[in-house]
Design a protein that fits this description.
disordered N terminus, mainly beta, about 55% strand, globular
């Protein structure tokens, strides 16, 4: 069974387009309400890691994001990726599974609570189809709240179910501090310091850190590279002679649409 907590940490894009304004009898008609916005992204990475822990056992990942947002601040979306940790965890435990996919569903609300300060609250469900052979099941639901000001973001995610197959782990939490800043034309630096706490599973709690760069290639394309590491206890996340928590470089490319 999985002994880790996973978050995309996931945020939706808010934006709108205004309709044209027509003039009637020298009086400008009011602009129509901003239209909802649908966005998406496809990406390929050298591996899928989440909160510092490999989800694909160091193998490549293909991912899809689809998002909807409207002018009120409401958003919802989905994230889909191949995974391998469930198959490896099952094999290490003496059984088998066909679960090789993660489907995340999320919804929330963003609003400006002060000048240049945005509050983001929502709920995120991690779903693993064909994972019924696990007990507890790895499916997990979290609620979250985050605040962003300029280049800085802090966010807390709280599990309202068992956490990714960890028994008696309802109430686990993930707190993160993020920094994102354009440091040169088309080049953005980012960093994260975070702590994952698994309730009633102290050996599986750990700190995660990341630092990397994203380069805008134009036409919606981006190149990504970052270093991730954790201080997870030796052996806590080791399955089939692979340590999912060890430090390594992750690279990828994405296309937004």
């Amino acid at each position: 069974m999985k002994q880790i907590n996973k978050t995309i940490g996931v945020s939706a894009v808010l934006g709108s387009a205004l309709f044209s304004v027509a003039a009637l009898a020298q009086t400008a008609a009011p602009a129509a309400a901003p239209t909802p916005e649908f966005t998406g992204k496809v990406a390929a990475y050298s591996e899928y890691e989440y909160r510092g822990i490999s989800q694909t056992s160091e193998k490549p990942a293909l991912q899809l994001n689809l998002d909807y947002a409207n002018a009120s601040g409401f958003y919802l979306g989905t994230f889909v990726s191949n995974i391998k940790w469930l198959k490896d965890a099952a094999k290490a435990s003496g059984f088998s599974t066909s679960a090789q996919l993660e489907v995340d569903l999320y919804s929330g609300f963003k609003t400006e609570i002060a000048k240049d300060v945005t509050l983001d609250v929502g709920v995120l469900a991690y779903i693993y189809p064909s994972s019924g052979s696990f007990s507890p099941k790895p499916n997990t639901t979290e609620i979250y709240a985050g605040v962003t000001s300029g280049a800085f973001n802090v966010k807390y995610s709280h599990a309202v179910t068992n956490t990714f197959g960890n028994p008696n782990s309802k109430g686990s939490g993930f707190i993160e501090a993020n920094w994102t800043q354009e440091i040169a034309p088309k080049l953005t630096a980012n960093a994260q310091l975070a702590r994952q706490v698994i309730k009633n599973g102290g050996v599986f709690s750990y700190t995660v850190y990341k630092a990397g760069l994203t380069y805008d290639l134009g036409d919606g394309w981006s190149a990504i590279g970052y270093f991730k590491g954790t201080n997870a206890k030796k052996g806590a996340y080791e399955f089939l002679n692979k340590d999912w928590s060890k430090s390594r470089l992750v690279i990828g490319v994405s296309k937004s649409f």
